[in-house]
Each structure stands twice: as structure tokens, then as C-alpha cells.
Amino acid sequence: MFFTSNKIEKFKTLPTPFYYYNTEVLTLTAKKCMEAANIISADIHYALKANHQDKIIQILSKHGIGADCVSKGEVEKAIKNKINPKKIVLAGVGKTDEEITYALQKDIASINAESIQELEIINNIASQLNVKANISIRINPNVDAYTHKYITTGLEENKFGINASDLPHILEKISTLKNIKLIGTHYHIGSQITDMSVFKTLCLKVNEIHRYLSDKKIKIEHINLGGGLGVNYTNPDEHLTPDFHSYFDVFNKFLEKYKYQQLHFELGRALVAQCGALIAKVIIVKKSFNKQFLIIDTGMNHLIRPALYEAFHLIQNLSKTDTQTSSLYDVCGPICETTDFFGKNVWLQHSERNDIIAIRTTGAYGEVMSSDYNLRGKPNIIFSDEL
Length: 387
Ligand code: LLP
What we know:
Blueprint: H1 5-11, E1 18-21, H2 23-37, E2 43-47, H3 54-62, E3 66-69, H4 72-80, E4 88-90, H5 97-106, E5 110-113, H6 116-129, E6 133-140, E7 162-163, H7 167-174, E8 180-186, H8 196-215, E9 222-224, H9 244-254, E10 262-267, H10 269-272, E11 276-288, E12 291-296, H11 305-309, E13 315-317, E14 326-332, E15 341-349, E16 356-360, E17 380-383
Residues 47, 50, 68, 91, 151, 153, 188, 191-192, 226-229, 266-270, 305, 309, 364-365 line the site of ligand LLP.
């Protein structure tokens, strides 16, 4: 049970809105992920961009999970939470000199380079620091992830990575850069991927690239296959943890791995989405035109996914246990924007002012993307084991 009746009674006494993080669900997710990853002895790096709460990072790292970072701030956060720098990777299409310098000084496992210009910049900074930079090249495999177009990253038209056709040129360049050590390749094709055949296509592309590299006698020890595993937004209670087994099994079956190679994955959403729920209160039930608007005290300022990607999140009225009477509502926030809604024509139990509303599966890309828009303040944070 995601919400016990005990917890719901407590919610009624707390100021809203708040993000509620269920630590039992998080722990279970971490365990299941690591068990499944073990079948291919893969290293998991948690993509901090999904949620950078210290406690979340600590729980995941207790299970042996490292960090995937995209800024100096995230690397600092990972180190502050005692993640060994040798378990940290840094990616991103635009790293500043300060970020590269910091990563080199901390001697993290790998900097994932996304362009030829960046390789030169990293080489220069490494030479000034008199170190050799461990680099993976992010290769854009041109695989369609069949997900929302705004969270697709692995097509040639996307800004990310180096196109596979540029590889010969890149390799030639790397051979001239004295302060770069090429240790790996990196791929990330998109997020919220639910069709496992997409990962099979990725494996086949990666195999081709690695055969080419191996023919050139280039030894790649570190293969980073990115993140992207999707979660079930429509029925979270029946799918509290993603199907990690099917996911890693695809790589087990289709990826050609040489003995000296280590696989790495950078999962964000799959690890943390289901442990979070955004909890709010009904401010007013407004009847207008032929509609009922349920106006709640949180909006796109705290969860922007529906407005930005037309994302679906399950909405529940936790104050009502009676499942018999239900009505149709447009569930909206208080923000002065028409896109400020969480769902249209949502069936909910007959709802009233001050009822407690839960917006599910919001542990990933929820709180981290919240803003001060309309100056309504940031949501509070509550962990289940502290309540
Ligand atoms: N690695 C790289 C290089 C990434 O760019 C990302 C996500 C990940 C790993 C983690 O992906 P995940 O396992 O979470 O799918 N704000 C959007 C999602 C943006 C994802 C950005 N990159 C959303 O709310 O759906």
C-alpha cells in the first residue's frame, strides 16, 4: 500500500502542498534494480537530475549505486553524499571550464564528451592541471526511442552526442590529444521508454560501433548505455517498481560484450518516480460552463510535466474512501496560465474544499523542476519514515 490510512490521517494535519517520498518504495526499487543488474554485472549510476534530495541519493548509494551528473552542482552533491568519485560520471552538451576543472580535480570515473570542440577544451584544461582525463565519447546512435519528442535524445537531429559517422574523424583527433585517455563510449537515446525493442535496437547499433572500434584495435573498457527505462504512470499501485528484469535481459541477450568491458547504466526516473507523490488540498470546487474545476493549492509551479509534455499523472482524492459516487473534474492549479492543469475530465469521488489530493508518480522530474512562478513558494518535503 503506497498510502496507509494512518499516513493519510497525518496528511490532513500538515500544511500543503508537499512532495511525499515513500522510503520503503525507494528501497524496494533500489534492491530490485540491483538484483536485476547483477545478471550482467552492470554498474548503476543514478541520474541525479531526476531528484537530488540528499536522503534519496543516500538510500540509493547504500545499495551500491553511483551517480550520473550533468553539472558541477550535481557532482558536488554526489560527493557531499559520500559517493566515491570513482562511481561518478559527468555528461552534458555544454560543460563550462569550471565544471571540467572540478571534475578533473575530483578525479571522477569519466567525463562524457559530446563534441570535438569539447575534447579539445578538456585536453587543454587537463594539460594545465597536468593530468590525463578519462573520457567517454557520447555517440548519438540515431535510434528512435518512441517517446515524447521533447525527451528524445538519440536522433541525429538532436543536439546530443557525436554522430557515429564522425567517429573516424574523432578518433584521429583523440590520437593527437596527449591529455585525453579514451576509456569508454556513452549512449542515451531518451527517457520514459516503455518499448523494450528500442533497447534491442540500441544494442545492435552499439555492437556495430564496437566492432568498428575493435577492428581499429581501440580498446573500450567502459560502455555506458544511459538511462531511459520508463515507469507506469497510469497504474502505479500495480507497478510500484519497473520491470528491471526485462530491461537488463535485453542487454544480456543482445549486447556483444568483450571480456574486458564493464557495462554502466544511468537510470533516473526508473529509480525514483514511483516513490514520490505530490500532496495538495482542494482550495475550491468551481462550477462554470458545463464543467467542475477542482482548484488545488499546487500547480505547474510545482509539477510542470503535464504542462510541458502533456504528461499523465494519476490523481487520487485521499479524503474519500467511498468509491460509489464519482464526478468528472478538471483538476487545476492556482497559477495564472491556462496550461496549469493536472488532468481534464478526471473521474474522482465527489470532492470538496480541503480534501487531500495526491498526484502520483512524481518522484522524478517533479520537485527538481519546480519554480517560484507566481511566488507561491516551493513545496515542502516529507519522507514517509519521518512521519
Ligand atoms: N543520462 C542522460 C545523459 C540523460 O540525459 C538522462 C535524462 C538520463 C541519463 C536519465 O534518464 P531517465 O532514466 O530518467 O529516463 N524532464 C523530463 C525527462 C528529461 C530527461 C533528461 N535526461 C521528464 O519529466 O519526463
